[in-house]
Design goal:
By secondary structure, this protein is mostly beta strands. The protein has two domains: 3-124, Immunoglobulin-like (Sandwich), CATH 2.60.40; 243-812, TonB-dependent receptor, beta-barrel domain (Maltoporin, Chain A). The protein is built from four helices and 47 strands. The strands form seven sheets. The chain has a 22-stranded antiparallel β-barrel. Strand 15 (243-254) and strand 16 (257-267) form a beta hairpin. It is elongated. 37% of the residues are buried.
């Protein structure tokens, strides 16, 4: 048996013995119980030891054994009947400490117990997670990413696509249980690392920066009420290991893909320094087509337009997250972090369009080239203060965060006629577009936790989130008659958008026997404020864009958001959870900006400044069961959403242009069920599968037309990991999303298959891996759209072809450190029931 397997088995046995101790700790109901408390710490480095084991054996009744484990702060609390006990305090790779013949006739505090490293066992400790584990809390599931080979050299989006309940579509959009109205948080807060809501930024962050992902389908009152589908909280790595240690990752692949990432940590008794810094250079070719056939009642001059789109992307991105935690004293600390992101992108989009007339056939062929250069720079400064008033969980946390993002785009659009068999009068007008976006965001947050007893606590807090985004868009068009370029006053504009959210919350949690509950109430005030600076009057804006536009709006929404979360322990490894929450979905800036995109002559997206927030009520019933080698998670859920956002396509009057615009529809009902299985039948084999089925029903009218729709869809994923001879790991990930029908058409199913192989080298200090994503080149979105005036087939692929990546990860000073392990139980989280 390898050292790594010995260590994993030891931890498993420790966990099983702990459960057994807890089961026996109840004792006869007529015996008086006393509480034994204490704290376990490393004697040299003066840090708490989490998951140290405390064993109490009755001297007179040796078969009577009880015990417990320490929490993240090294604190333990064990109830035991009166008597004389031998007490043992143990932690893997540390020397045990014993207290023999300890008389227990009252509550005893053993104080701080210091353990020293056992030099004989140092070589047995290897800090490396081997599997993706799931933890269940009252309001969320936590997936520890583990050693996912298929994401080596990949991005955060690649890692999220392997998390149960989560899907990442062709455009990089993230959905939770098939619902894309999901809130993305980084370390529990909105962040520039998530691009102020633009999830495409996650394509630029390295996957090995992630420690774990929290899937929060029934958020408690502590969390922002935004996101009707729920919340994805991405927790980045922040090493707690003492001394100087870390890892360096190198990767290269095809299409052109190269990157370097370093995770470095240095910790002493007084402070902890940590950083994740990386650079990525990659080419991501994509594209697709739009085949639009117009009916006789349309206003188009053509019977058919076929547009073939090819996208060449060249991206260069640098990310650095640097932080320092300073321990003010034993109970409090302050952490400061700085995040910096710099990106330079060069994209070339080529649209080759064929125009047909019913009687004449192909009459015109054009080629439109849009060359875009973009620079993006983001900064985030954050301060976090934590004060633990006592060891029982009495705690105050205060956060301040400031973010700024500056993005500049320069776009040149040219168009040529390749053939003109129909002698069409088609104006070739060159364009130049200058766009600048400046965003600023402030976050102030305070959370206070007050335990009433061992099993009950009260919590209250405040969060203020203040965001402003200014988009300055200037369009210059070629003057055919006089030459040169002139400003287009119809489309040029400045859009100043502000979103301010103030919230207070309170929640109470308690435990009665096997039943735990968490009740919360959140009060939020949302201000959506926008001002459009345009040369056009309100009447001219409506005439040009087809919808009434308020150029200076200030809307306030006040709402109460209750939450209820219950968990009932059927057995030590079996529980049922029930959750209810009310949520809000606020329209983002690009959903509100009414000025259309320019990436295509015939297909445009246009925002709608008349959008109002959507609200939802959701229920979730879950079941978890663990066996020795199998873990089952399941749930059924229902969500009713009002004022839901839907994208409506229509044919712009007197043109061939197809416009997509978001609108508020009446309601959206979603019912579903999901099932997940983790199965480890042998040391060399790990199987992981999940299945999610959902049914949605949309009811609503827009411009006098009904958009009622009802349909079923599903998605499933499967992962297997096999250890081959010579200790080579082979992992296969498969994902399939079933076809579904929307309010204006259908979308075909999507299949994706990834493979990866890895081998530990250099005395297991490094890992070499090779992976291929989208092995079958099948990750494409094929859609069919039907309206009153046209029908359309379309296909889009964000990244064409297979993606091969070779990665090398080297770890230094991580082999002889104490283990750091998160539990798999359903215990209360500190400050959160």
């Amino acid at each position: 048996m390898t050292k790594r397997n010995c260590f994993s088995l030891s931890l498993l046995l420790c966990f099983i013995f702990t459960l057994a101790f807890q089961a026996q700790a109840q004792g006869p109901s007529n015996e008086k119980k006393y509480t034994i408390t204490g704290k376990v710490m490393d004697d040299e480095l003066q840090v708490p030891l989490e998951y140290a084991t405390i064993t109490l054996q009755n001297v007179n009744k040796p078969s009577q054994v009880t015990g417990g484990v320490t929490n993240i702060d090294g604190i333990f609390e064990v109830e035991v009947a009166g008597g004389t006990y031998n007490v043992s305090v143990e932690f893997i790779s540390y020397k045990s400490k014993n207290f023999n013949n300890l008389q227990i006739d009252k509550d005893r505090d053993l104080g701080t117990i210091f353990l020293g490293m056992d030099s004989e066992n140092l070589d047995e400790v290897v800090v490396r997670a081997e599997t993706t584990q799931v933890e269940v809390r009252l309001d969320k599931k936590i997936y520890n990413i583990g050693k996912d080979l298929t994401t080596a050299g990949g991005t955060v989006s690649d890692a999220l696509n392997n998390v149960p309940s989560v899907t990442v579509d062709i455009d990089g959009g993230i959905s939770l249980r098939g619902n894309e109205n999901v809130k993305i948080l980084i370390n529990g807060k909105p962040s520039a690392m998530a691009g102020f809501g633009d999830t495409n930024v996650l394509n630029n962050l390295p996957a090995d920066a992630i420690d774990r992902v929290e899937v929060i389908t029934s958020p408690s009152a502590r969390y922002d009420a935004e996101g009707t589908a729920g919340i994805l909280n991405i927790i980045l790595r922040q090493k707690k290991t003492l001394g100087f240690n870390g890892s360096v990752s190198l990767n290269a692949g095809t299409p052109t893909n190269a990157g370097l990432t370093a995770n470095i940590n240095y910790r002493t008794e007084n402070f902890n320094l940590f950083t994740t810094t990386g650079y990525r250079y990659f080419d991501a070719p994509g594209g697709g087509f739009f085949d639009t056939r117009y009916f006789e009642n349309s206003s188009s001059n053509y019977s058919r337009i076929f547009e073939d789109r090819n996208i060449e992307r060249l991206n260069r991105n640098f990310n650095s997250n640097f932080g320092m935690e300073y321990f003010l004293n034993e109970k409090s600390s302050i952490t400061g972090t700085v995040f910096y992101r710099n990106g330079e992108d060069e994209d070339l989009t080529t649209n080759s369009s064929d125009y047909y007339k019913s009687q004449e056939g192909l009459v015109l062929q054009t080629e439109r080239r849009e060359k875009e250069k973009e620079k993006d720079e983001s900064w985030q400064w954050a301060l976090n203060y934590v004060n633990n008033f006592d060891r029982n969980g009495h705690k105050l946390t205060v956060d301040f965060q400031y973010e700024t993002d500056s993005e500049t785009q320069f776009t040149t659009i040219t168009e040529d006629i390749n053939s003109n068999a129909g002698n069409i009068d088609y104006a070739l007008i060159g364009e130049k577009v200058n766009t600048t976006e400046d965003q600023k965001e402030y976050l102030i947050q305070a959370d206070y936790v007050l335990p009433f007893s061992k099993d009950s606590q009260f919590e209250a807090g405040y969060r203020g989130n203040f965001e402003n985004e200014i988009t300055d868009y200037i369009l210059f068009q070629e003057n055919i008659e006089e030459g040169g370029f002139v400003k287009n006053d119809i489309l040029s504009n400045v859009f100043d958008y502000t979103e301010n959210v103030n919230a207070v919350y309170t929640q109470y949690g308690s435990k009665f026997g096997d039943l735990s509950f968490l009740l919360g109430l959140r009060l939020e005030n949302t201000q959506l404020k926008g001002k459009i600076d345009s040369e056009l009057t309100d009447e001219e804006l409506e005439e040009n864009f087809g919808i009434p536009i308020d150029t200076d709006f200030d809307n306030n929404y006040l709402g109460l958001f209750p939450t209820v979360n219950l968990i009932y322990e059927l057995a030590e490894e079996e529980n049922i959870t029930l959750g209810y929450n009310r949520r809000i979905n606020r329209p983002r800036g690009w959903f509100i900006n009414p000025f259309p995109s320019r990436s295509s002559t015939n297909n445009i997206f246009q925002g709608n400044p008349n959008l109002s927030p959507a609200y939802s009520n959701a229920f979730d019933l879950g079941y978890l069961k663990r066996w020795e080698k199998l873990t089952l998670t399941s749930s059924i859920y229902y969500q009713h959403e009002t004022n839901s956002f839907e994208r409506i396509e229509n044919n712009v009057a007197r043109t061939s242009v197809v416009r997509t615009i978001p609108v508020n529809l009446s309601s959206n009902d979603r019912t579903g069920a999901e099932l997940g299985l983790l199965y480890n039948p042998a040391k060399w084999l790990r199987l992981n599968g999940s299945f999610n089925f959902f049914r949605f029903k949309t009811e609503g009218d827009y411009n006098g037309k009904s958009y009622d729709a009802e349909n079923n869809s599903w998605f499933a994923r499967f992962s297997s990991k096999v250890t081959l001879p010579a200790k080579i790991d082979w992992q296969t990930n498969a994902f399939y999303r079933g076809a579904y029908e929307g309010i204006q058409g259908t979308q075909e199913g999507i299949l994706s298959l990834d493979l990866a192989f890895s081998k530990d080298i250099f005395n297991e200090n490094a890992t070499l891996s090779l992976n291929v994503r989208d092995l079958l080149n099948s990750r494409k979105r094929d859609s069919y759209t039907l309206t009153e005036t046209y029908e359309r087939d379309s296909e889009f692929q964000w990244r064409k072809g297979q993606n091969f990546t070779l990665s090398l990860i080297y770890r230094f000073n991580q082999k002889k450190q104490r283990p750091s392990k998160r539990g798999n139980g359903e215990d209360f989280e500190e400050g959160e029931f």
